[in-house]
């Protein structure tokens, strides 16, 4: 498995709009075992995203899905920064697929 | 929902043992929607844990489940440090329950 943890900081006041965009194409990503969008209770503009994929290739392929590309196109202008990026190797747990 | 992201650093050489302990009582935690144990590919001793609970009370209650208490008792001596702790407010996604 291939995992990602990261934080996005949205343009002031745009976190809810950006979160909705992140959530809308989730059903269309083959090999996606977990993709959780969370707000940061200590920062009104921050979103934490934790992802688990069958492998890195599935993650890369998802970025080419038309609905996902369209979502990225709409979401990117609402992002100020990406930070705290961490690649992981998930080994098990609850909520995988 | 209530979420946690955090990193544990295991005693040198004990990551696999600690990971197995973390995974073994997962089925016994009411209100646990996601609990993913992952290795850090850049640090042989580090484990990333990402969790989603129905609410904070469910997380607190899990620490009192006998199997979980026993696992904590066995696992703690294998932990050198906890770091990068982040509380989140999950709002949706794939792999929740």
Automatic annotation (TrEMBL), chains A, B:
Residues 2-87 form the ABM domain. GO terms for molecular function: monooxygenase activity. PROSITE patterns: ABM. Gene3D superfamilies: 3.30.70.100. Keywords: Monooxygenase, Oxidoreductase. InterPro entries: ABM_dom, Dimeric_a/b-barrel. This is Quinol monooxygenase.
């Amino acid at each position: 498995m291939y995992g990602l943890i990261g934080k996005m900081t949205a343009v002031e006041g745009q976190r809810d709009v950006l979160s909705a965009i992140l959530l809308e194409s989730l059903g269309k990503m083959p090999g996606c075992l977990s993709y959780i969008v969370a707000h940061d209770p200590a920062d009104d503009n921050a979103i934490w995203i934790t992802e688990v994929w069958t492998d890195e290739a599935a993650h890369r392929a998802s970025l080419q899905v038309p609905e996902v590309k369209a979502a990225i196109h709409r979401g990117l202008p609402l992002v100020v920064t990406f930070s705290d990026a961490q690649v992981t190797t998930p080994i098990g747990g609850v909520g995988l697929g």
